[in-house]
Amino acid sequence: MKKKQSNKPLKKTSKKTAKKPFYHSLVKTKKIYLQLEKTNLQGEQYSEVLCLIEETINTHAVSTLLNKLPQEKHETFMEKLSQEPHSEELWDFFGEEKDNAKDHLSQVFGQLEEEILQDFFEKEEDV
Amino acid sequence: MKTTKFHKLKKNLQKRHSNLNRQFEKKHLKAFKWLAERNLALPDIYGKATRLLTTGSLAGTLLLSGTIQPTQNLLSGQVELTSLRAQLTQDEFNKQLKGELMPLLPENIGKLNEQESTEVSDVLKKYLGFPVKFRYQNNELNYHYAWTGYEQHLYRYPGDSLDQHDAMKIAGIAPGLGAWGYFTDSKESLTQEEYMREKYYVAVQTLYLPEWQSEWQRIYDWYKYRKMVMINPDNGTACVVVVGDAGPAQWTGKQFGGSPEVMKTLDLHEGYHKGKVLLAFVDDPENKIPLGPVEALPNAKLAEK
Prior knowledge:
The structure holds 2 protein chains of 2 kinds. Chain A is mainly α. Chain A is 60% helix and 0% strand. In chain A, helix 3 runs antiparallel to helix 5 (98-119). By secondary structure, chain B is an alpha+beta fold. At the A-B interface, helix 1, helix 3, helix 4 and helix 5 of A face helix 1, helix 2 and helix 3 of B.
């Protein structure tokens, strides 16, 4: 059955996205979205699942990045992130470790994609 | 997908997400507290990044449809023309209301005692032009004077999105529905009243009411869209609101929540996104007091003549 686009507010918004979180280019979600399409979820159910996935990715990203930053930089990083989450300048917090931080986050996103994919197949108690 | 499969997927994802949150709190307590102090959660940040900053041009806002108007009907006829609201300029109104309220309030948050609640109610009626009560039809919140936090927009109907809200998009939209679900069934059926309810909603802690366990169904029904007024005594601003969500959680240190528009009206939308406010029931059995900012109406008397 063809899904109605109007029932998918979050996905619709994502497609319009022009500015995204500064780490967005590293996020790996292709397999997840393909799997999500197969579920045939619509409307509220689709939005709920998408929200949970986005929140999980975001929490993981921020946690991973904070791990790479010294404690004293955490507050200013959070401040900047909350005000300008799309700003590429956020990478400057990592100084010379910028490229390492990017590589590490990219790997983390790859693993996370596989883990989230498992949620589509595993039983509740297996997670 | 069958509903049971959806629930399994949702539960799996929720479990993963809450495990991550717990780890985050454990590993980055300082950052976690930083978020909590500002009434933010990590998803808010993501929400701002992916939704707010990306939706510059908004297709088909409700305002453009002509069926929805954002402002109050200023001369609704329900404001007593003898009230100070009908006699003062906005600046005088705010300053004088603050001046009269502040000396009556206790230092700490909580319930006002009998004398305080009578005096405060009298002052509010004198200024607002309609009766307010801290105890109404045998219902009373655990707090009359307490901290309010900054809430996000709520989904009004299936298919709603942040793009379709016409103001304060910086606040983002809550990932889940409000405690009473959607405000209406569809975009097409959204009435002005429902539109205003989402715009000017507050969250109250119905779950922590002492009678919740034994009377939850009655409480749930009674509080749904219950009309109230939130006042910031620190600057004399006030906003007529409805109860549109339950919360916030006790650990946040806040007792009420205000929609982005409510918080803006009370000038609490910047900085720490919180403030100490009064929250009282509006005695409006005929539902005639409009929702939104309480504005001075110095020309109301003239218009009446």
